[in-house]
Each structure stands twice: as C-alpha cells, then as structure tokens.
Specification:
4 helices; globular; two-stranded antiparallel ribbon; 4-stranded antiparallel beta sheet; alpha+beta; UPF0231
Amino acid sequence: MDYEFSRNSFDDSYRIVFSMGHEAIGRWLLDELGTELAQVTSCLHTLQQLESEQQWRGHTFTLTANRDEVVVVANAMLQPASDDAQTTLNEQALTFYDEESYAACGYQDFLVMLDAYQDFIARYGRR
C-alpha cells in the first residue's frame, strides 16, 4: 500500500493519495479523522491497544479492525440491497465495488500508515 500526504500552503487544503485499491483509506482519513492531531493520535493509540475485533461507524465510513486486517467500507455499502433480500457485506462489496468505497489492508501496515499520517499532521496540520 503506497500513499502520499500533502498540504497546499496557498489555500490550506489537504491531499491524500493512496495506491489503487486503497483509495477508501485516504477518504476515511480526511472524512472521519480530519486534520486534528488529537483525533489522529487518539485513533492510533486505540488501534495499537486493540485486543479483539472492533468496529467504528463514522459519518461516511465504517472501520473494522482486528490484529490481522483493517477494513474501511463506505456506510452506503452496508445498507441492505432491498427490504426483501438481505445481502452480506462481501456480496455487496463484490456487487457494488467502488475503489473509493472499500479497502482492506494488513493491521501492521495500517498502523505504520496512521503513524506517518500523525507525523504529517504534527508537522503541517492545523493546531
């Protein structure tokens, strides 16, 4: 998983680019954590202390993590296809897959990325 964080000093906007298949993680970072250092630090600390599978539903995305894998899914993908037919998350992910709506990566890789994001925000973020 490759990624790049940048900040435009002209208009104070942030840009996060992830490799193909991991774009949803970048959207999750900005949509759910934003650029507040305390929020990023709190999330990193919580994930480092993880002992069993946990799930956090945000405004736009849901993050599910265990010691092996982290999955980020757009909340819209978690809605049932219809009232009559309940589908599982995996079926929905395959049927409605959108690179900006679903991503999975290894737990350790996610922690390394989140630590790098924390460093980036500490250096360039809003205080």
